[in-house]
Input
Amino acid sequence: MDSDEYEINGQLIFTNTQQTSIKYVSNNQDTTRWDPLFVDCVTYKLASNIATPLRQDGGRMEEAMLAIYKQTLSHAMTKNAGERLPVRFTPVNSSRFVAARWYFING
Output
């Protein structure tokens, strides 16, 4: 899509097309908001990248760190697949009136 076919206004994208698709990559540099398993993955991957130059052990520590990285990544992906988006609280849906209408017999 050409840049004159859309306009970014704050956090919204305006376009005249009926359908559009975008690719979005977040650049979240605040590590305190990262998932702990993701932090572990980044740590082990970085450790594997610098292990051989630091230890000069022929790559043994690099292989060990990569193995731990792959195991942690698998665990993180499994956990992420099981997570759901949080359900927003809406007072209307939790009101007694709505509950009486949809779940209970009025009377």
User: Anything to note?
Assistant: The radius of gyration is 24 Å. Residues 60-82 form the longest helix (23 residues). The beta strands are 6-9, 12-15.
